[in-house]
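WARN retry 2 of 3 for item q-0093 after timeout on previous attempt; input resubmitted unchanged.
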Amino acid sequence: MTVDQQIKYLRKGCAEIISEAELRARLVQCAKEGRPLRVKAGFDPTAPDLHLGHTVLVRKMKHFQDLGHTAIFLIGDVTGLIGDPTGRNTTRPPMTREQILENAETYKKQVFKILDKEKTEIRFNGEWLLELGTLGMIRLCSKATIAQLLEREDFTRRYKQGKPISLHEFLYPLTQAQDSVALRADVELGGTDQMFNLLLGREFQASHGQPRQIVATVPILEGLDGVQKMSKSLGNYIGICEPPEVMYRKVMQISDDLMFRYYELLTDLSLKEIESLKRSVADGSAHPMEIKKKLAIRIVADFHGRAAASKGGEAFRRVVQNKGVPEEMPEMSLPDEMRGLGAIRIDKLLRATGLAKSGAEANRKLRANAVSVNGCKHREMSYDLPPDASELVLKFGKKWARVRL
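OK item q-0093 returned
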């Protein structure tokens, strides 16, 4: 590919590149030197599983790999202990090093569902940050001022609101910038909310006599609600380790408008191909649901394979479209305190199965006619157990569970 073609390919799904002129020059320079670009992206393993929001960044790393460059998947075993303050209104609760390393092992397995293992370096920033020592950390802190750090939007907001900012949080952008120096990164990728940290990395490199890294940001992926950032804590996420049928069903929940953003950020389709899909929906030659099903197949296949994706589609048609019963669902035995009774409290059973988080939630769903027992809608608090029944199949909203009697 020509340099122009490479830049066009890399631009897809990017929010901003600082700067394209620098990227062009670096591509030309590396081609002359016969070496690949070193493309860095950092991930703090603060949870055991990745979701699709994380993969926007991972996919952009893959695009660089497609052009022959080296992706550096940086695991923040030290920055994870500090806690990324980006977008936070309060200090993150601390994690133990054991938790960080345990989660890191799952990250290493998950990213190779997208990245090429042969073109990927997996590094831990503890390699260099733990060796800094007290004097090294003092020197690191001397490279930025409090005024500079308070330019960060999240720090500024908390400062103006009188909310506490712990001193260790100021270390986060400094250590992330030091990572770029240690890795001699040509490019650093990050979300749009990471711009301050990414630009600081450029300044740190310059102070060490290194060429400034090119910064490329990717948009923050909206979750299933189409409004908030995809997040496990908000419950609007699609986990890449979730079962195929769950992933497929969740993709089908997104709005028709959000569907095309997912196409752009979560697939390798070109912008030209995505525009063609948009036109087919707009002119009525294709139904939005069919285009969304193709998206679901693509996303699930990336993490589970094509056969599993097809199975997920079949489950969606059977359970959601044809209102059938899923083949797989959580199973449990009837709680001991409910055995031997002629009738049981459905709200308590819904809580025991984990379908309802509380009795209040169970009652709301019962009143809303959103609870089924063995395929029949049920609104009463009490349920008479059939004498010859061996199981109950519960449906609570869109969730299912089987209870053995």
